[in-house]
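Please check this protein record:
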Amino acid sequence: MKLTPDNKFKKLIVVGDRILIKPIKPSDRTASGLVLPPGIQEKDKVQRGYVIKSGPGFPLPLPSDEEDYWKNPEEKVKYIPLQAKEGDLAIFLQSNSIEVIYDDEKFFIVPQSAILMLEREESF
């Protein structure tokens, strides 16, 4: 099956409390019009990007008060969900993120704890 823009991220599973973020290309000019050399803003401590996919969240431990909890294979792990949702604009600490290249594009895998702020378009 060939990957297309519509389905290329459907195959990806983000694990735990991690979030896949597509960084926004920083401007090559300052507010006053000075041209910045390539890569200068990539070294900033704080980066911005759009949330592409998020993991299920923080796993909750299974209750230990049941005597034979190991006998129930249908018991599914429960998670505390993450705040970040697909399409959110995330401002995050780059020092805690991991840069990955997928399908010739640069992404960051960021734990929820490294996200400082989210901007979400609310639909009513």
